[in-house]
Design goal:
Elements lengths: L4 E2 L10 E6 L5 E6 L36 E2 L13 E5 L3 H8 L15 E8 L7 E9 L9 E10 L6 E10 L15 E2 L21 E9 L5 E5 L2 E6 L12 E9 L23 E10 L4 E2 L6 E5 L6 E7 L6 E6 L8
Parallel strand pairs: 4-11
Antiparallel strand pairs: 1-9, 2-3, 3-5, 6-14, 6-17, 7-11, 7-15, 8-9, 8-14, 10-13, 11-12, 12-13, 15-16, 15-19, 18-19
Length: 343
């Protein structure tokens, strides 16, 4: 069983490694010249000028933090990559083989997909009302996944089918030992932080009725149109506006869990593997969830503004509490044990 990992989006090519780090998880992280990273294999980014930091609207604010939950450790812990380089997890042949068997439908779907089960809070699509960001804090568990994969994620989305544009971030656990990337065929993410990188293993996780650890994540569009991914206020990097088609703003945003089983297989646990209730010491939760609308205003899901999607209630549930105070904000529990959940 592998530890949860940040969702990853990059693709492999031949590059010059400035330095590499072996990790206790069995994979290697290479420090690559920031101007020669894999993102620039994308044909639309050949002349791209790297943006070192975002320029967000002044209306945006930081997430609140809960003192009872500690932050999970992600990325290079001892040494950062040298100046002018960024960390990229090295992709092996074994990774590529495993990735082929993973679901291509981690992206939010507009129709039901066989062998996939959702427990999601999703903002309703409203005419002339768009979104430019989504954020929240997720406590991190390591459910026992013998086959298939389990995700805790937030996303932004516009369009459907061939016209779908979406960005997803969160954590995942799968039944393999060394997989960690689900979207290696889509270059374009520009890494800028020297420590935290997408696809890194999460080294400390929550234990039911024990210590609780979380990660605060966000996806936000800044003034130049690039979509930034952050972890606990660290700007990891961004998806340049140039690689998207008609993605000035999103139509909807969402938060929740996804479980993917093999065909005719048993669906894996989601979240902590325990149905949500009022006891957040043993159930997985999202807290301080917020969207940012196209005018820069931040808010959370109010009554009659969102839908709860639970397609397998015998296996997974959501317990939405709404707004419960300044520190926890809009909060909900999610997850369940999985099992024979149907198609």
């Amino acid at each position: 069983m592998s530890l949860p990992k940040l969702l990853e989006s990059f693709h492999f090519s031949h590059v010059t490694f400035e330095k590499d780090y072996g990790t206790k998880f069995g994979y290697i992280v290479d420090c690559i010249d920031i101007n020669k990273q894999l993102a620039f294999d994308h044909p639309l980014l050949k002349d791209h000028k790297i943006q070192e930091r975002p320029h967000f609207s002044k209306k945006t604010t930081k997430n609140a933090r809960l003192s009872r939950n500690r932050s999970s450790m992600i990325g290079l812990q001892q040494d950062a990559c040298p100046s002018g380089t960024v960390p990229i997890r090295r992709t092996t042949k074994a990774d590529l083989i495993a990735i082929r068997s993973m679901s291509n439908n981690i992206y939010p779907q507009t129709t039901k997909v066989p062998n996939e089960h959702n427990a999601v809070i999703k903002m309703r699509t409203v005419e002339n009302h768009g979104y430019i960001g989504v954020k929240g804090s997720i406590n991190v568990y390591n459910p026992v996944v013998k086959e298939g994969s389990s995700y805790a994620r937030m996303y932004i989305m516009k369009g459907a089918d061939e016209n779908l544009n979406s960005i997803t971030t969160g954590w995942m656990t799968d039944g393999a030992q060394k997989t960690g990337c689900f979207n290696i065929r889509c270059p374009g993410f520009v890494q800028v932080d020297k420590r935290v990188y997408l696809g890194s293993a999460i080294s400390n996780v929550s234990i039911p009725n024990g210590p609780q650890f979380e990660i605060g994540l966000s996806i936000s569009k800044e003034e130049d149109g690039n979509w930034w991914v952050t972890k606990d206020e660290i700007n990891i990097g961004y998806f340049p506006a140039a690689i998207f088609n008609n993605f000035i703003e999103a139509e909807t945003v969402g938060w929740g869990g996804l479980a993917v089983s093999l065909p005719n297989g048993i669906s894996p646990p989601m979240g902590s593997g325990i149905f949500p209730d009022d006891n957040y010491s043993h159930t997985s939760q999202f807290r301080v969830i917020q969207y940012i609308d196209s005018s820069g205003v931040q808010d959370g899901p109010h009554e009659n503004t969102y839908d709860t999607i639970i397609d397998s209630p015998n296996c997974y549930l959501i317990d939405f509490h709404g707004y419960i105070g300044e520190h926890e904000g809009y909060t909900f529990g999610f997850g369940g044990p999985g099992g024979d959940c149907g198609i």
